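> tool_call: predict_assembly(chains=two)
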Amino acid sequence: MSPWSLLVLSLLIAFFGFTLIAGYIGGKRTKKGLHEFYVAGATLSAVTVMFSYMASYMEAWEFVGMPSVIVSEGFEWWIMEMIFYLSYVALFIPVSLRIYKLAKMHKYITPIDQIVHRVGGFEKPLRILLAIMMIYAIIIYIGMIYIPAAGVLAAATGGEISYYTLLILYVLFIIIYVSYGGMRAVAYADIIAGVTFIVAFAAMVYATFVYWGGFDKLAWTAYTSDLAPQIFQKDSPFQYFLTMLIFYGISWLFIPHLVVRLYAAKDYKGVLVGGVGSISGFFIGAFLSPLLLGLSIAAYYGSNLPEVEVVEGYVPLLFQSIFGTGPLLVIILLGLIAITRSTIDSMLLTVSSIIDADVVEKSLRIKMSERYRRIVTTVIIILVAILSIIVALAPSAPMVIIGFQLAFPAFSVIAWPTIVMMFWRRANKYGGFASYLAGFISLILTYFIWPEAPFNPFGVWEGTLPTLIALAALVIGSLVTPPPPKEFIEEYYGEKSKK
Amino acid sequence: MRSKQGSSDISSDVEAIPASLTRWEYLLFIYMIFAGLLVWYVSENLLVWQPEENIGGLPKPIVGALMISITWIIVNFVVFILYYSFLKKRTRATYASKEVKR
């Protein structure tokens, strides 16, 4: 093994060693109680909410996933990501403010608390159903993040350490780290991720102006490369783009591990500033960064793309080619490890809260000591971390495509009925329960009935059909049964106290 | 499931947020129609490989991406300003009415 590969391996070990210590310190500082542990006692300031939201949201998806997919699958897949922001950005504040209001009034701890409260019935089976749905979506999501985590490091070693070896090592470190109770180190990892992200972005801007001679020259070099005719063309039908705007974009307004950030806000300014600030950050992270990196890969390599085990490896190799093997690459690799880790942390914390608060405490109502409860939760988290490997073992597509086709449709069938029920007062427990059940069953069935992407005969986004079925079940189920009690609706919307 | 404290101790800032959509928030639906048209224009007209053509000196797909992303970053600030001023006013009014009741 070359000294450079050894250095890459040491980076991985050093990073997780550092977070273990940070986790231990963080754990000591954490006060007792579920509300404190999962939503920080709902006391986070606007700036903290902003950075926390940004750190949980931003991941390898933006930094390595999107630039790679521009080259491997086509520019249109990145355009779809930009389309998603058109609806997500416009509706973020209106919807998030309502989520914040409800969370403040009713002191929710988990996203399932909020859903179950609004449905207003079938609490135990609904909590279990939603736990299954969320954990299913999270397993795919985490598996999707494993791909760039291992792929980037494997590419950086030039294949000397294989993708599979690094994948196993990475998951092993995650398991050790979670077992040790290091969840509270999230913030420390986020700082590393943030700093290195800025360094990497600055390096890319520098390369754009110094190496390529300006943005227009970079754009034209990529657009006239021999790979360009394959990259810059549209294969998906218009309805796919349109349903990405409507269904995919809006479903991100209720993503479990992000929603809890809103529960943690101290006041409405936290939601507003957190929203405008984090979205401004996404402009750099999700727009500028993938655009510059994707165009740079196309311009630099053209059709002579380097040999990689997974396409996400293009990004570290580009940095290596332009800046050489040195401190800058070390910082960027460190940042990539931190970015993937911070999102996985948030996801596992959500799983922890679902198992701990929703399943053990409120659904099964099993009485057990705090210590035993922690052991059960940790075992489930480890199982989730291990199960997620299935997605990353032999990735059939880049992480972005796996996200679009498998992970986010699963979130859409949870988010859409939830958002509709926040505003539609006629929705009742029958329609509510039916919507989640029908949405989840139809989601699974679509992959069997239509085994080829986009898993439906209409050319629409993969999450569209099951989401529409869930919404139909909500509307029909609610309208053919009695409306929810007036007192319940008044209590839910906080209107009782006004009378 | 959650705290039983209910809505008796709701702070002014929480009370200021309307539970249902206000009339002017329905403008968001008009914006969504505009966004749909923008998506149609970009996906059907600009996602092409035509190296001999340009818009403002840039390749067409890049211009399409710029159009979409500049739209959402402007919308981000417009929505923020609208809600910030709206809620600031409502929070003051809610606080004042609470003070009068006391």
